[in-house]
Amino acid sequence: MSAKALTENAEGATDNMAARRAALTLLETVLVQKQPLDAALENSDKFRALPQRDRGFVRMLVATTLRRLGQIDDLIERNLDRPGSLRNRTIANILRLGVTQIVFMEVPDHASVDTSVRLVEMAGMEGQKGFANAVLRNITRTYKELVPRQDEARINTPEWLLKIWIKDYDLRLAAEIATANLAEAPLDITVKDPGSKNFWGNALKASELSTGTLRRAGGGPVQELEGYDSGAWWVQDAAAALPAKLFGPLEGKHVIDLCAAPGGKTVQMAAMGAFVTALDRSAQRLKRLEENLARLGLADKVEIAAADASQWQPADGQAPQRILLDAPCTATGTIRRHPDILHLKTAQDMESLTAVQARLLDNAADILGVGGLLIYCTCSLQRAEGEDQIERLLAARPDMQRVPIAAAEVGNYTELVDANGDLRILPFHLAPHGGMDGFYAARLTKTG
Ligand SMILES: C[S@@+](CC[C@H](N)C(=O)[O-])C[C@H]1O[C@@H](n2cnc3c(N)ncnc32)[C@H](O)[C@@H]1O
User: 9, 208, 419, 428: least surrounded by Cβ within 10 Å?
Assistant: First the structure.
């Protein structure tokens, strides 16, 4: 749903203070307490207490603020009497939410300004009401001239990340990635029974990509869509649905899913007829996997174990023939869906994650049976978490070889496969269809 439609739908949201207060708390939870937005939404009583229509508005308001924070702060700064003088964090966050509504959500100016000023008052800062009012009123007058002059791709992207993308790709591609991240992602769906795809395509008003994913333009709460409760489908980005398909037919096969939770790929492989051993280090995330399996009626196809996959060995001593390693990563390929990543992930996170990925990959290569397949994937855009990991492993282990991926395996989209035969998906790929999450996947075998 568009920001304008959401705003109009959220009748009352234009002057609804409960919605604005929830948005302020959520923004602070992400920016100050450094919690992911999804977790903040899940844990927020204020948010859950709102009527459905206001929840959509609040989610959009906070996500847009996080996505466009560089531009928003630039606008605020340019409209201060004394640049650099805004020190109060609460006032800054209230102004940010106000600017988002004025500039990016088409909420009427008077409603955006008035509700922001009321938020300042509610925060116990009566004395700052005039200041907030003046800054936001200035912005309503100046933004139409200022916004087109902003380099939106650059200023909404953390410098450390942009630098790496320029090094890994080039300036043009890095700018294309950053621009693609400014758009909302569509809702992608994998259907449990491929024979019912036409039915669900019609029922959900979704179109089918040639990779097999159903894509729905409209938003709204997923749980309320037809077929969710009965477990006919699950949400999975078109890119995330590709790695598991690289094993080929899975009917009657056993797959070890080393980093399985919350289970998008586990359920996909179980629905393809595999028996899956699903491991994850996080017992809490494995609970989500169990819930998903129960909803989809696939629990009998999966055995679950909490384990450190960098140490794990098969209990029966049998070397696995199929291993999926969907390693923990900075998840920068999913910024369209999770703009909080822009503010939560750091260069240090990437460094520690690459060390974890290397350990996981080494163990996966150790335990893989001769002639078996290992699919390594991450939803990171940085080569350090994708291509470089595979190059390191292949250089160190002559017994491991790449099994190149063909475009025919991924819907004949040639742009998704690189010169080595790995999947390298960038968020602007398939742009005419609504883009894809950034993803990397390599398929390896062991020669003995
Ligand atoms: C990218 S997510 C997996 C997503 C999942 N495959 C899916 O499709 O829904 C990475 C997972 O790796 C898990 N993880 C991180 N380090 C691990 C380790 N050493 N052993 C096992 N799991 C680990 C995290 O808890 C997280 O659930």
Answer: 419
- pLDDT digit string, tens, across residues 360-370: 999 999 999 99
> Do the beta carbons of residue 294 and residue 322 sit within 8 Å?
no
pLDDT tier, 10 (very low <50, low <70, confident <90, very high otherwise): very low
288: CA distance to ligand 1 center in Å? 12
Helix (H, G, I), strand (E, B) or coil at 71: helix
The dihedrals phi and psi of 290, each to the nearest 5 degrees, come to -60, -45
Instruction: Tell the burial category of 149 from Cβ atoms under 10 Å away from its Cβ (0-12, 13-18, 19+).
Output: exposed
CA dihedral 210, 214, 215, 216 (to 10 degrees): 150
Q: How far is Cα 31 from Cα 96, in angstroms, rounded to an integer?
A: 12
Q: Whose CA is nearest to atom 10 of ligand 1?
A: 328
- 325 CA distance to ligand 1 centroid (A)? 8
Q: In 3D, which of 245, 235, 325, 348 has the Cα closest to residue 277? A: 325
- The Cα–Cα gap between 171 and 151 comes to 14
What are 303's strand-pairing partners?
A: 277
Query: What does the pLDDT look like over 294-318, one tens digit per residue?
Result: 999 999 999 999 999 999 999 988 9
Ligand 1 contacts (CB < 6 A) are 259-265, 279-282, 285, 308-310, 326, 328, 356
In tens, the pLDDT along 392-436 reads: 999 999 999 999 999 999 999 999 999 999 999 999 999 999 999
Backbone φ and ψ of 187, nearest 5°: -95, 120
Tell me the two tokens of residue 304: 């679950």
374 within 8 A of 362, measured Cβ to Cβ? no
pLDDT of the residue at 1? 47
Full set of structural domains in the chain with CATH: 3-150 (1.10.940.10), 187-446 (3.40.50.150)
